[in-house]
């Protein structure tokens, strides 16, 4: 059973739908570039970068970023408006692993879902500027639904104020900040209209192997062997929970990791596993398959 589970999971992460599970409506999301201090921050709306699961409500059903249906209790979306909304399914700071388990379940537990809320950060089909979309999203609060809330958006007057807000929120457990230009219309793909600001860099890599654990991790995973979009091979050991070491991400799946700069040999420094990715990133085509990577060793 465990092998079957990993096989199905790998199919989802690699972009192939398991039998009986069709991908949902095509949706090209708006993606963020990294803020490097060059933007006029007073022209941006700022919000906390939530550590959740990105989801799209199409007016009738909830879909993952990869286009797969998210099974939710009927009561969870009761009273939601019939317009498209994009947001993060969220439990709170530092609860991603718990949330991921709830969201991935094919049989939704109503009691668990009562803790979850969709934090709406955009309206893909609204048509107006982001400032106009912020005003529309704020109206969602009038519905008084525990499961549906707009992401709080605020303004800053300078880069120094932005840095201070980042420091304060990260100290409280936040992941970082998102900056969305006030005049931007919803635009699929990556652009300077949407920026992310964090105290560390993050990236994606594909799992190509495992190393066995030692000491207290004997009989479990020691580290993930991965390859990133630049073809760099390295290991991810820090940041994995005991549950993830006992049932690691499948070979061929994608993970997100954080790092601080590069080593003298060009590898990411101080790497730390963050989470498993539901779908491969756009750069997936540039990364070798596990089989090709293995052949390069010879």
Helix-and-strand structural type: alpha+beta
Helical percentage: 10-25%
Number of helix segments?
A: 7
The SSE order reads HEEEEEHHEHEHEEEEEHEEH
Calculate Rg over CA atoms. Answer: 20 Å
Largest sheet: 5 strands, mixed
Termini Cα gap: 34 Å
Output mean pLDDT. Answer: 85
Task: Tell me what portion of residues adopts beta-strand conformation.
Answer: 25-35%
The poorly predicted ranges are: 1-23, 285-298
Q: Order of strands across the widest beta sheet?
A: 4-3-5-6-7
Number of strands: 14
Broad shape = globular
Q: Can you describe this structure?
A:
This protein has seven helices and 14 strands. The protein is globular, with a radius of gyration of 20 Å. The N terminus and C terminus are likely disordered. By secondary structure, the protein is an alpha+beta fold.
Brief write-up:
The protein has about 300 residues and is α+β, with helices and mostly antiparallel strands. About 20% of the residues lie in helices and about 30% in strands. Strand 3 and strand 4 form a beta hairpin.
Explain the layout of strands and helices.
Blueprint: H1 2-13, E1 30-34, E2 44-48, E3 53-57, E4 62-64, E5 85-90, H2 96-104, H3 110-113, E6 117-122, H4 130-138, E7 148-150, H5 159-171, E8 177-181, E9 189-197, E10 201-212, E11 221-228, E12 233-236, H6 242-246, E13 254-259, E14 272-276, H7 290-296
Parallel strand pairs: 1-9, 6-7
Antiparallel strand pairs: 2-8, 3-4, 3-5, 5-6, 8-9, 10-11, 10-13, 11-12, 13-14
Key words describing this protein structure:
single chain, 298 residues, alpha+beta, five-stranded mixed beta sheet, globular
């Amino acid at each position: 059973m465990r092998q079957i589970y990993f096989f199905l999971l790998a199919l989802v992460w690699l972009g192939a739908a398991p039998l009986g599970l069709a991908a949902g409506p095509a949706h090209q999301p708006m993606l963020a570039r990294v803020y490097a201090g060059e933007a006029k921050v007073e022209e941006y709306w700022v919000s906390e970068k939530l550590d959740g699961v990105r989801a799209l409500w199409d007016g009738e059903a909830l879909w993952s970023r990869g286009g797969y249906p998210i099974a939710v209790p009927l009561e969870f979306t009761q009273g939601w408006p019939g317009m498209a909304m994009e947001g993060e399914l969220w439990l709170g700071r530092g609860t991603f692993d718990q949330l991921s388990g709830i969201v991935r379940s094919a049989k939704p537990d109503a009691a668990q879902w009562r803790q979850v809320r969709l934090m709406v950060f955009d309206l893909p089909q609204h048509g107006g500027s982001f400032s106009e979309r912020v005003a529309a999203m704020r109206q969602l609060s009038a519905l008084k639904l525990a499961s549906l809330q707009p992401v709080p958006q605020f303004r800053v007057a300078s880069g120094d104020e932005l840095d201070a807000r980042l420091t304060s929120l990260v100290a409280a457990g936040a992941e970082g900040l998102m900056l969305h230009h006030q005049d931007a219309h919803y635009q699929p793909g990556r652009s300077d209209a949407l920026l992310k600001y964090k105290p560390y860099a993050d990236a994606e890599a594909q799992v190509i192997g495992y190393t066995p654990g030692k000491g207290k991790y004997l009989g479990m995973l020691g580290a993930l062997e991965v390859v990133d979009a630049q073809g760099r091979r390295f290991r991810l050991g820090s940041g994995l929970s005991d549950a993830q070491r006992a049932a690691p991400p499948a070979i061929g799946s994608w993970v997100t990791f954080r790092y601080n700069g590069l080593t003298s040999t060009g590898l990411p420094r101080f790497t730390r596993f963050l989470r498993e990715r539901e779908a491969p990133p756009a750069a997936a085509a540039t990364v070798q398959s596990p089989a090709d990577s293995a052949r390069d060793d010879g």
